[in-house]
Design a protein that fits this description.
CATH superfamily of the largest domain: Sortase
Number of strands: 11
Strand content: 35-45%
CATH architecture of the largest domain: Beta Barrel
Number of helices: 2
Distance between the termini: 103 Å
Radius of gyration: 33 Å
């Protein structure tokens, strides 16, 4: 039995050609944009790792001054003779050692391997989330890329509310894990003479960038710290409040 095969001819219309060109353009554009975004992500991660290395370099370079300084002084000691009738007074000069408290430096200069100078005021350590960074003495967008910075308030372990700002990179670096802290977690602040004070988290909340009530210095004569970092969408700020453990 004979079979008749009928083939249907496909006609390529101008409209179909146009759609094909558009599809190719969109495809190549998508690949190009994907490459750009991937390159940006790789560079951003490299930049963060580099900043982390600089921060650790500054941390390792902090030189703690001694809490006390020993000073030798010569003093004159008057010795009365034990025999009253001889009435003899003997004067002797002796050298004694006296401990004198050393003032905490306001800041300390650290020079990174690339020659850049940074100024630190202490160290913030949060064992529960493996945070351990130097605190830079002032803040700016560039300095925040290097390490947490003093935003407002007194220097470490002075009376008042020390406010420290740090980046949230949504990974394990800098203050990314600070929002996970809970009440009772311990934050350790070390000043430039090596004194470490422990602070306990007592409150946490989110504010808008222009709401600065959290930086208030009304602490009733106590030592407090406030940690500040961005939310994941960068539109608001996480606030962590902690008081000195007495």
């Amino acid at each position: 039995m004979n079979q008749i095969l009928v083939s249907e001819k496909l006609y390529v219309t101008p409209e179909l050609k146009k759609k094909k060109k558009v599809f190719k353009f969109e495809f190549f554009l998508s690949v190009f944009l994907l490459c750009i975004l991937s390159s940006y992500a790789i560079y951003a991660e490299y930049d963060r790792n580099k900043s982390e290395q600089v921060s650790k370099e500054i941390l390792d370079g902090i030189d703690f001054s001694n809490e006390t300084e020993i000073i030798e002084q010569e003093v004159t000691v008057i010795i009365l003779n034990a025999i009253p009738e001889e009435n003899e007074i003997v004067a002797q000069t002796q050298t004694v050692q006296t401990e004198v408290a050393v003032d905490v430096p306001k800041e300390q200069k650290s020079v990174a391997s690339d020659g850049t100078e940074y100024y630190t005021i202490g160290i913030v350590n949060i064992p529960s989330i493996s945070v351990n960074y130097p605190i830079l003495s002032t803040y700016s967008d560039e300095l925040l890329k290097i390490s947490p910075c003093k935003f407002h308030g007194p220097n470490p372990n002075e009376v008042g509310n020390l406010c420290i700002a740090g980046h949230n990179y949504k990974n394990s670096k800098f203050f990314s894990k600070v929002p996970t802290l809970v009440e009772g977690d311990i934050i350790e602040i070390t000043d430039l003479i090596g004194n470490t004070v422990k602070y306990s988290v007592y409150n946490k909340f989110i504010v808008n960038p222009d709401e600065l009530e959290c930086t208030s210095q009304l602490t009733q004569g106590r030592r407090e710290i406030t940690l500040i970092t961005c939310t994941d969408d960068n539109k608001q700020r996480h606030i962590i409040k902690a008081r000195e453990v007495i």
